[in-house]
C-alpha cells in the first residue's frame, strides 16, 4: 500500500498581526485593567526605540519592565522575572525581543502558575518533565525573525550549572498574539540576519529531510520555504538593504518555518538541533551557527538513511536534474554548504571553536540529556552522533 501521512492534530491559536505600525494596536490586544510586565533582552529594544513605542501604545495600562534576558536565556534569570512578577502583582506578560526573550517569557509564564519546583517542567536529566497545566497569558512583539517562537508552543532554556539547554512544549505557552513588523528587522546586524535565515532553513530541513510518507502539501510547502530562503538570504544579510518587501518575506518565512504547519503527519529529525545545543552549552556559540556547523556532516553521514529525501531535495529545492542519484545528492550537499558560506555562516566545527578534544565532552553531554536514540527513526546512537561530530570537525568543501 502507498505510504501515507500519520494521523495528527493541528492546533495553533496565535493571533498574528503582521505589517507596519502594528505595535500601536497593543492597547486593544491586552485586556483592559491588566497589569503588564514587559520582558526584554540586553537593551536593543531600548536603544532602537521599540520599548518606548510599546509603552506609548500601552499608556492606558499599568506596566513594569524586566530587562536583561540574555541570548540563550538562563533558568536563573527567568526565575528572577518570576519573582518580579509575583512581587509586583502583575497579571500579564509581554515579550519584546527575539527567540530568547519569547522563550524566556514562555517559561516565566509557566513557572509562575506551576504548582511545584519549576525545574520539573523540564526533563532530559534536569527535572521530572512534568506537564504544564496552565500559564499566565502573554503576547509578543518580535524583533528577530529566526526561531518562530512567536507562533509555536516551545521554549528552550539554558541551565548553567547542569550544562544543559533543554526545551519544553505546552499548548498553554502559545502567545495569545504576536506582532510582526518587518521594519523592526532594520536594526539587526549582519550576524543576526544570517543567523535568522539559517535557523529558519534548518528548521524546515529537520521537518523535511527524513523519509518520504507522501505528505504532498508538507513537502511542497517545505521546498517552497527553502527556495525562498535561498533566494532572499544573500540580500537579507545586507544590513543596509532596508527593502520592506524583502524583510517582510524574511519575517513571514521564518515564522512559517516552525509554526508546525509543515511537521504535522510527517517524520522529523531534530538531531542537528540536538547536537548543536551541546555546542552552545560548551562554548556559547550562537544557536544558528551551531546548526550550520553540523548540518553538512549530518547530510554526509546519514546519506543512506535520508537517500530518497536527499534526491528530492536536490531536484525540487536546488533544481539538480542531471546525473545519478548519488551525484545529485552530493551536488545538493555542496550547494547547501555554499549557501551557508555565501551568507557568512560557519560550516564546520573548527569555524565555531570546537576541536577534537571537545568531542568526548559533547557526546557525554548528549548522553546526560538522554539523546541516545535520536533522528527520524530513533537510530542515531551516541556512536553515530560521535561520527557526525568527527566528520564536522574539518569538513571542507
Ligand atoms: O538582547 P538584545 O539587546 O535585545 O539583542 C539581541 C541579541 O543580542 C539582538 N537583537 C534582537 N532583535 C534585534 C537585535 N539587535 C538589533 N535589532 C533587533 N531588532 O539579537 C541577539 C540575539 O537574540 P536572540 O533572541 O538570542 O536570537 P534568536 O531569535 O535567534 O533566539 C535564539 C534562542 O531561541 C532558541 C535558541 O535555542 C536560542 O536560545 N530557539 C527557540 C526555538 C523555539 N522556541 O521554537 C526553536 C529554535 O530552534 C531555537 O532553539
Ligand atoms: Zn533553531
UniProtKB/TrEMBL annotation:
One of its GO terms (molecular function) is methylglyoxal reductase (NADPH) (acetol producing) activity. It comes from Alkalibacterium subtropicum. Keywords: Oxidoreductase. This is NADP-dependent alcohol dehydrogenase. It holds the Pfam family Fe-ADH. Residues 13-182 form the Alcohol dehydrogenase iron-type/glycerol dehydrogenase GldA domain. It comes from the Bacteria. One of its GO terms (cellular component) is cytosol. PROSITE patterns: ADH_IRON_1 (PS00913). The keyword Oxidoreductase applies. Gene3D superfamilies: 3.40.50.1970, Dehydroquinate synthase-like - alpha domain (1.20.1090.10). Residues 195-365 form the Fe-containing alcohol dehydrogenase-like C-terminal domain.
Amino acid at each position: 500500500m502507498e505510504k501515507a501521512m500519520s494521523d495528527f492534530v493541528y492546533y495553533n491559536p496565535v493571533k498574528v498581526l503582521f505589517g507596519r505600525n502594528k505595535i500601536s494596536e497593543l492597547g486593544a490586544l491586552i485586556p483592559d485593567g491588566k497589569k503588564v510586565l514587559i520582558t526584554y533582552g540586553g537593551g536593543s529594544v531600548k536603544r532602537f526605540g521599540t520599548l518606548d513605542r510599546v509603552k506609548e501604545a500601552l499608556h492606558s495600562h499599568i506596566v513594569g519592565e524586566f530587562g536583561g534576558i540574555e541570548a540563550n536565556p538562563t533558568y536563573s534569570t527567568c526565575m528572577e522575572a518570576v519573582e518580579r512578577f509575583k512581587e509586583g502583582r502583575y497579571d500579564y506578560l509581554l515579550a519584546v525581543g527575539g527567540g530568547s526573550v519569547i522563550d524566556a517569557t514562555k517559561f516565566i509564564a509557566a513557572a509562575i502558575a506551576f504548582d511545584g519546583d519549576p525545574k520539573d517542567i523540564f526533563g532530559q536529566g534536569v527535572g521530572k518533565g512534568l506537564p504544564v497545566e496552565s500559564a499566565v497569558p502573554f503576547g509578543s512583539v518580535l524583533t528577530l525573525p529566526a526561531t518562530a517562537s512567536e507562533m509555536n508552543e516551545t521554549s528552550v532554556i539554558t541551565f548553567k550549572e547542569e550544562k544543559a539547554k533543554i526545551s519544553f512544549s505546552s499548548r498553554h505557552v502559545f502567545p495569545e498574539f504576536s506582532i510582526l513588523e518587518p521594519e523592526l528587522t532594520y536594526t539587526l546586524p549582519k550576524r543576526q540576519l544570517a543567523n535568522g535565515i539559517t535557523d529558519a532553513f534548518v528548521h524546515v530541513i529537520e521537518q523535511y529531510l527524513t523519509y518520504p510518507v507522501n505528505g504532498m502539501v508538507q513537502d511542497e510547502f517545505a521546498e517552497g520555504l527553502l527556495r525562498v530562503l535561498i533566494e532572499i538570504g544573500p540580500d537579507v544579510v545586507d544590513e543596509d538593504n532596508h527593502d520592506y518587501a524583502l524583510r517582510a518575506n524574511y519575517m513571514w518565512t521564518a515564522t512559517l518555518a516552525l509554526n508546525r504547519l509543515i511537521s504535522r503527519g510527517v517524520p522529523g529529525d531534530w538531531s542537528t538541533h540536538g547536537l548543536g545545543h551541546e555546542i552552545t552549552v560548551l562554548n556559547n556559540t550562537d544557536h544558528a551557527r551551531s546548526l550550520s556547523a553540523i548540518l553538512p556532516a549530518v547530510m554526509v553521514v546519514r546519506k543512506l538513511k535520508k537517500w530518497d529525501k536527499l534526491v528530492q531535495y536536490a531536484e525540487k529545492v536546488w533544481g539538480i536534474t542531471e546525473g545519478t542519484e548519488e551525484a545529485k545528492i552530493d551536488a545538493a550537499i555542496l550547494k547547501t554548504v555554499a549557501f551557508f558560506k555565501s551568507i557568512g555562516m560557519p560550516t564546520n566545527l573548527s569555524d565555531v571553536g570546537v576541536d577534537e578534544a571537545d568531542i568526548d565532552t559533547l557526546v557525554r553531554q548528549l548522553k546526560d540529556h538522554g539523546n541516545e536514540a535520536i533522528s527520524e527513526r530513533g537510530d542515531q546512537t551516541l556512536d553515530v552522533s560521535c561520527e557526525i561530530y568527527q566528520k564536522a570537525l574539518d569538513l571542507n568543501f
